[in-house]
Structures
1.
Amino acid sequence: MSTLTKLALGMMGRLRPKPAKGEGAPTIKLPPSRKEGGAPLMVALSQRRSDREFAPRELSLQTLSDLLWAAYGVNRPDGGRTAPSALNAQEIDVYAALPSGAYLYAAAANMLHLVAGHDVRSVTGYQDFVDEAPLDLVFVADHSRMSLVPAGQRESYASAAAGVISQNVYLFCASNDLATVIRAWINREAIADALGLSHDQQVLLSQTVGYPKS
Ligand SMILES: Cc1cc2nc3c(=O)[nH]c(=O)nc-3n(C[C@H](O)[C@H](O)[C@H](O)COP(=O)(O)O)c2cc1C
């Protein structure tokens, strides 16, 4: 769908998901993430960049597991995560919009839970590449987990936490020859609707991931 069409549909409140490609399983048990491999950190930092052209090739479940763990997985026995959060509120939820449906990443269980049995990818941003890239992540803040954070600071703290998660994704991609771009040019209302979010949940950013086109 073109950007202009999306903008028009968005203005009319009619930017909606497409039918899913295949039947999304209600839950997906991810394979254990690999904690080795990929390019070293300094090489990944040298190669980090935003890409906006993606091949349609799907990501394997193993790559998805590795990517989500790098993004915001549990990396310590006490439940600590690969990205920090103010007062350890862990207020960010990572949603994965796949061709077969949209899923919530359950980090502790290393599972995906289906939240929408549609192809939500085209709703995750105005730019046309989001429709065909194999994965669009959505970072959502759950304000109900931030009761210890002063109300006036909640949005900025959550945005900072989402930014760190995004950089984890950037570095994973740079380290594994994947392409990615973080996106704020999104229709937050349409995404919230498509994912069935509650009033406590705030859509912050989306990030496309896939194989580079060339
Ligand atoms: C908060 C934020 C929002 C962004 N939103 C978008 C966006 O909506 N669409 C897009 O194509 N790129 C977006 N970008 C990516 C920037 O355009 C990109 O990082 C910048 O051009 C520098 O390029 P580089 O990432 O390759 O260094 C965003 C970046 C940040 C940090």
2.
Amino acid sequence: MPTASGWLYSPEGFEKGTVRFHDGTITEVSRKAKGDVLSKGLILPGFVNAHTHLGDAVVLEEPQGSLEEVVAPPDGLKFRRLKEASQEELTAAIRGALQRMLRGGTTASLDFREGGQRGLTALRDGASDLPVEVAALGRPQGLDYDQREIAALLKIADGVGVSSVSDWESGALKQLARHVKASGLPFALHASEVFREDIDRVLDLHPDFLVHMTAGRRSDWERCAEEDIPVALTPRSQMFFGRVPDIPGMRDAGLRLMLGTDNAMFAHPSVMREMEFAYQVAKLHGGVPPEAILAMGYEAANLLTGPSRMAIQEGAPCNFLVLDLPWGGDAAYRVIKATEADIALLAIGPWTWDRERGWLPKD
Ligand SMILES: [Zn+2]
């Protein structure tokens, strides 16, 4: 039976342990090494990507121009490309991005899926048969509310994620948010990405989470913290346009922070890569401990199947990776500095990847 041995990560920290698994399930977790050890190192749950636009992987060249020219709806470069791409191209681009994400140890993602039902279908088809948990947050085709369109969308979406209050007419966005919330599904949006947006207008929509809040003031962050609305940060995509979130300031304001990778044409959807960058840019505002950055790589689990996603325990489905890194010193720091090349083993559901043999068929 395959065994991984080393130091197990949980929100409380690392402790010594051995994990045995079979047929996609963890069969034993103990403090002793047993049997032939397949892999040794730091054992962590799969990372959770709080914010992606995986369809943007259809754009292959480096986008030029301002943020508005590249990513703003309805006519930014990415929207033109998404429209031009065939269904097959879009599905293949999403699938490729998900495969790269998995290979880098990120096993779940909350995706803002543009393109109405067509976009959602491409995401579902792209993710089919892959051992990945994807929350598909769809959106209507245009920037207006159509009751019938949303009812149809919510039949295949896990929720709705839209651009921002600035792109929408107030009344229509409120109707949309109300419709989504009444159906019991999550509603999320970007906020204060480039310039400060009216926090009352944003919070009036009762979002389940926000993306960015970079241009917000401390009082805006405190309002979100009071209402316990988590915020996904995507430092690499923001840096592409010269912006840097104040991670220490947001933490001080009490915000629950998550990490996402945003547009797939700027940033590989790997949470490991985002963690390293987040740690570095946090230093511009005084820095944060590596443990805090590592926790941000898992915070979005609470928006998916919950903290149990992270359980490395007997009876739980396999969802872990082993980083071939020595114990000792500051393990959290080693993890956020790790690269894909440090991954010795991935065990995700019935799928296993190891450095010697690559992806292995199911047991
Ligand atoms: Zn985004």
3.
Amino acid sequence: MSQTAHDLTAKPQVEVQAKESPTSVVGEQFVPPVPRISIQAFCETEDTANMLDVASHDRRLARAHVTVQMGGVDAAVAFYGDAPTPNLIIIETVLQGAAIGADLGRLAEVCDSGTKVVVIGHVNDVLLYRELMSSGVSEYLVAPLDSLSVINSIGNLYQDPEADPLGRVIAFVGAKGGVGSSTIAHNTAWSIAEGYSSDVIIADMDLPFGTAALDFNQDPPQGIAEAVLSPERLDDVLLDRLLAKCSNHVSLFAAPSSLEQVYDIDPQAFDPVLAVARKNVPNIVLDVPHIWTGWARSVLMAADDIVVTAVPDLANLRNAKNILDLLKQNRLNDRKPYILLNQVGMPKRPEIAAKDFSDALELDLVATIQFDPQLFGDAANNGQMIQEMATGSKPAETFNHLAALVTGHEQSAVMRKSILGPIFEKLKRKKG
Ligand SMILES: Nc1ncnc2c1ncn2[C@@H]1O[C@H](COP(=O)(O)OP(=O)(O)OP(=O)(O)O)[C@@H](O)[C@H]1O
Ligand SMILES: [Mg+2]
């Protein structure tokens, strides 16, 4: 469902009155639906705020999360000083010429990488347009605008075959069975959704035994099996039908978790599913079971980021080393996988020390999570996330940290470098 002015809690927002949109036809042209992104608009004029409010109720924006508030660049800069930026910021400016670029430079300082910016201005100037586009702005639109034109422009940003796909795929896999990889995948997905108000699909790839539906207390359709077994039918509409909604921002591609069928799946069987998911959702968390089949190998190789969970024993160390070696050979231009130790400190179990584990792998651990059967057992049995049961606890903070790492917010918090960087760089050069 689209929303207006409800998602942003940190600042009071201006309620805008929905009005009839002016001419709402972009010729006879098809206006593409917008994927499940978060859009936050900061307007200067009531007319633009009203127009965006009308747009936010359009069916083509039904999957997106839209908020509209007043205050333009000033409000956006103040807001994002301590809040993560969404997939798309729409910013209205009433400035003219070069002043617009300078003003946007302030926004660049607080923008996370990956956030797109659409500027609505009041000057129709082709040179300004070119300058803004070459500086990293995704689109410059001139007011007054009608709702459908804006939706069309947003939709086209995500339809462009040349552009990077919207969705990033993060695969979670265990170095052995039962090490907690699914638990960590689900909780990290929840942290991404809650912490960044960003939509996440969890794909439970453990078709016969998956636990994601249990962990989220859902009784969903057998989404993922249907998608994998009939890839030719899979499109945006079927995707919607096959997903179970777990919360405002989390949807689940649930496994059948039954033994009626055996799944001897082709190595490339998940490719079409992931391609459709990538087009529609910013984050795709893959809960990959601990098996070694053609498809399991191929989804790991194709993921944007990989999180390997191990417990501190010798078999886990051996397997983790094999997984890391294989990934290193086959993913020369990718970031190293993240490795973490789980269930550390289990009573009476001899363990390999975290430092020795990490030295043997020649890779720093991103986290260690203590063995806490009460907390994890209660969460699993109640179908709740650790963050819900124990907000602020160490494991909850670890999941938030993992969420920041795999979404790139960890670096962003330090660097705050965005696609608007060039504007900022230019500005600094001018000042210098
Ligand atoms: N840190 C922890 N402390 C105690 N129990 C934990 C911890 N992490 C996970 N568990 C529990 O371990 C069990 C196995 O977890 P989970 O199903 O997530 O593992 P998995 O690696 O996905 O297993 P599978 O190989 O079956 O897919 C669950 O009961 C979970 O609640
Ligand atoms: Mg699992």
4.
Amino acid sequence: MSETLIRRAGFDDAEALAAIGAETFCETFGHLYPPADLERYLAQAYSLERTLQDLNDPAKASWIVEADGQVVGFALVGPCGLPHANVTPDCGELKRLYFRKAWQGGGLGTRLFAEATAWLQSRGPRTVWIGVWSENHGAQRFYARQGYTKVGEYGFEVGDTVDLEFILRRDGASFFSDL
Ligand SMILES: CC(C)(COP(=O)(O)OP(=O)(O)OC[C@H]1O[C@@H](n2cnc3c(N)ncnc32)[C@H](O)[C@@H]1OP(=O)(O)O)[C@@H](O)C(=O)NCCC(=O)NCCS
């Protein structure tokens, strides 16, 4: 069994975070887009500058997962930026949750998701939102198991390509109903 470590990311992790973000996005979705669209999106979404801004924002939190001495996954949460009429300023969002292929399906996603959700609820109770690609059935099953349901749709832009994205939500009170 290899050693895995889930930990909050800090400024020293910015380069590693930007790199794992771009790598796992390409691994998961890279085949869907013309190279020019993908390149434009990566330069904007996973730049070092953008990653440092996220790390510097006290309303956001990032995690890194390490295994066998390498970064294998990460997560980013913060205020909800999804386009839905019921989103309010105190809503939270799981913005990113990605693992390298070789590290999927082994329970790490569930553990990281629990940590990220707990951080959001430490400022709650707050409703949590997630955007997920309409064809990403594996992730949709994963989120459904965590109590998230589909409440809307929107167009997610990668360069000039616009994907159909589902909007998922879990109400804040439900996180505390078992206590
Ligand atoms: C979605 C993801 C974060 C889940 O983490 P994980 O460590 O693989 O999930 P766990 O092992 O904790 O849980 C397994 C469950 O996740 C779901 N799942 C999603 N993608 C999966 C994959 N590639 N392999 C296995 N299970 C996957 C399934 O529902 C599975 O449950 P099942 O065994 O009943 O089918 C991870 O698979 C991943 O990084 N996928 C690619 C990137 C991605 O799609 N991110 C979400 C963007 S919104």
